Amino acid sequence: MLPYKSLIQVDRNASVSLHIQVCNMFISLITSGTLQPADILPGSRVLAQLIGINRNTVKLAYEELVSQGWAESVERKGVFVLSKLPVLSRPAVPEPGKNNPHHEAFTWTNKFENAWITKGPEKEMLTIDGGFPDVRLTPVDLLMREYRSLSRRLYGKNYLKYGSSKGSENLRTAICSYLSHTRGLSVPVENIVITKGSQMGIYLATQLLINPGDSVAVGLSNYVLADDTFRYAGANLVRIPVDTYGMDIDHLETILQYRSIKAVYIIPHHHYPTTVTMSTERRLKLLKLATEYRFAIIEDDYDFDFHYNNKPYLPLASIDHNQNVIYIGSVTKTFAPALRIGFMTGPSAFVNAAAALRELIDKQGDTVLEEAFAVLFNNGEMERYFRKSLKIYRQRRNLLCQILQSDFSNDITFNVPEGGLAVWANFNEQIDLVKLAEDAAKKRLQIDDGSFYKNESYAVNGIRMGFASLDENETIKALELLKKVLH
Amino acid sequence: MLPYKSLIQVDRNASVSLHIQVCNMFISLITSGTLQPADILPGSRVLAQLIGINRNTVKLAYEELVSQGWAESVERKGVFVLSKLPVLSRPAVPEPGKNNPHHEAFTWTNKFENAWITKGPEKEMLTIDGGFPDVRLTPVDLLMREYRSLSRRLYGKNYLKYGSSKGSENLRTAICSYLSHTRGLSVPVENIVITKGSQMGIYLATQLLINPGDSVAVGLSNYVLADDTFRYAGANLVRIPVDTYGMDIDHLETILQYRSIKAVYIIPHHHYPTTVTMSTERRLKLLKLATEYRFAIIEDDYDFDFHYNNKPYLPLASIDHNQNVIYIGSVTKTFAPALRIGFMTGPSAFVNAAAALRELIDKQGDTVLEEAFAVLFNNGEMERYFRKSLKIYRQRRNLLCQILQSDFSNDITFNVPEGGLAVWANFNEQIDLVKLAEDAAKKRLQIDDGSFYKNESYAVNGIRMGFASLDENETIKALELLKKVLH
Lengths: 487, 487
Fold this sequence. Notes:
- Two copies of one chain form a homodimer.
- By secondary structure, the first copy, chain A, is an alpha/beta fold.
- The first copy, chain A, has helices spanning 4-7, 18-31, 44-51, 55-67, 140-153, 169-183, 197-209, 224-232, 249-256, 280-293, 348-362, 367-378, 381-407, 433-442, 472-486, and strands at 71-74, 78-81, 126-128, 192-195, 215-219, 236-240, 242-243, 246-247, 263-266, 296-300, 325-330, 342-345, 412-413, 422-427, 445-447, 462-466.
- Chain A folds into three domains: 4-81, Arc Repressor Mutant, subunit A; 126-132 and 384-486, Aspartate Aminotransferase, domain 1 (Alpha-Beta Complex), CATH 3.90.1150.10; 165-379, Type I PLP-dependent aspartate aminotransferase-like (Major domain) (Aspartate Aminotransferase, domain 2).
- In chain A, 39% of the residues lie in helices and 13% in strands.
- The interface between A and B is large, with 136 and 136 residues.
């Protein structure tokens, strides 16, 4: 007989009843091959005594085994493992090797072996991030109050059931009106799909536009997750230089004369990572080329809400009479990264297809959160927050730039950004950013090591220094630490 | 001079300042071609009088136009549209036609022309759904209390910033322990990725496994959004018959002898739409075949938590010693469809790749919601809810089945389901389900028209009749209405 006393051990405090625990342990003995088909199970009296439980519990466990098809009971003989059960092979996980790099039991191609995976931020470390909002300034509690009160009011109502894959109609209506007020962009409510942040807008647009082998024009420097999204769809990236007026559209034109481009991805307001704004002349020329060469412009305008000098430039989408522009925006980036709400607009068939694809990806968004945001747009809280935070972020930008100017002029060159939440800081060539980040971490300062901003054709020694998420004292302290690490 | 009085109209109540409104209207006149490069703008005094605003406002608007690069100011001559601006072509959207079915300004292939898009449910209509939980029974308010209190406690803390793309570690730990207690499934915390409902699990697994041209085995009847997800990835569907013991694995074996299969998608507990449970013998045989032929098993176990007779069968994942199973579960389906939380487990490289892909799709989930669910798992509220609702759903299942038996025996055949939230109801061939659904809607009863359950090889005259979301009175009323519509 098998050593059942050690093989079968029950936990009287578990939430699963004792007979199910015993049953499951027998299943495990059968599937691991310890018990073979047609093997006899120990008598209920014997087992009960061995493992110290009531005999009826053992009987119940055996009944369960029989009813689930693992065993059969033969009158006067006992309970046997079902003889016709297929025998599972012993764990036969192949060794890793040339032909079997992932040593998995099934075949698949891992396209993500060296992929970028965000880990949560280090806790309790002073962080110079890449340009995130200060969640302490956002009306998160107002949002949560709405969220909870909506869910209570709608308890058992339709908002908690499945909704439209285009997203909440109330939020789409609120965003329509917000787009029209803030940037003269008129789109019908049906031409908006609510996304989880701007990243999902990029993903949806890419999947709909790109077939493997298509070309996408992107900045020589670019947002790496956009590059990765295009590559994942099988796109070839065509890198276009970016200067102080944004992407070099004349250069793009030269390329268009001999090469077909399916889409151009731009962040005209303000380019990532360098924060430059695309000039009006280039915007108009890009629109003209799009009409001529029939490509799509993916306009990622996640940064629109923060601008400090003039009023912001109108997006290309606002002056696009030919419907070449797929316009992507974000509420996430201006509110709190973890509350993921964004939107995408475009021609109506395109937006409908995006909603259908979204249905395959995750059915729909969080309807209650979307409704709560709609309330905040409609009662003016969002605008109050934008106004308030704009003023504070301008001060923070000025402070950071002032300190960089006075204390870091030998180490860092930069331009004061017109908008957005970060300064693009080019470090002196002698400074090793990876080492700098390591040294800073030892002093409890978290700072980028620059690798996020590089790509196969862009080797820069720079990082984005976010000024929005740190208050005055924190900024001063962070830069003092940085100074110490540098010298 | 252009008729500026009608072209430029300002709204004194708008949140955008007057000079920006005027500026934006001039931009619109320029981009639409009404104003051409080098055209002169009206003098500020003239325009101010025409449209009834202060002359300084006009001056500010012109300064804004100049600073944004739309116009230039020539001393003593006036303000002119910038002469070197590219002229945008007039809207030249091509007419729809054979070569241009979408009549968009750019080229793309619409794979979603006839796609299924969920619209929100009709408001205030009694609904026999396909098997959703009763959101009135779920502890939504407890969840919301946690959600709000977490977000308040963590205000400015890391949970509102970007988190791991695998999802909250607290929730992953809670789900690990829940999987181990409820179904003997031991997985390391790193091998779990939190998803938005089970649909995202299906999408991620499919994208990682399937290359265009690969074959996926699915039930002859199957969950249509899974079929669509496989097809979207370019898979060929191989349909396997499903009988009262689940998918016919002997049939699958015959096919494997001459055809390579990349993955087998099953809903063993309980099949969708027919609610049958896969037998133990078939489960073991499928695992054996997977080891032999090295395919992946995508086990969609969204329905695990609801079972009324015995304890549920262990998932294939729990008895899979060879790591062939990718296991997908849902909290959404058991809680509230709009609060989208699910999970996927599998070999560790596979789960890491899923997290990397997720980063491209939407960066991460809603960290605060994930943390709130973790609290409810850890303080026992989830289990209390499961126990309570199980009892109520069993009663509701029994009631529905009893009425179907006594009042609909000529119209509907069905088996009492062992678990899940719906009865699979086969209607008499003479009943036109589309017409039935239309007639029912006229009596304010919403009911499926059966199209969701059909596919290219499965023409059934059936619908899933959910019993969970209606209380006793509602069930009685809904079935009385259905009876009236039928006869």
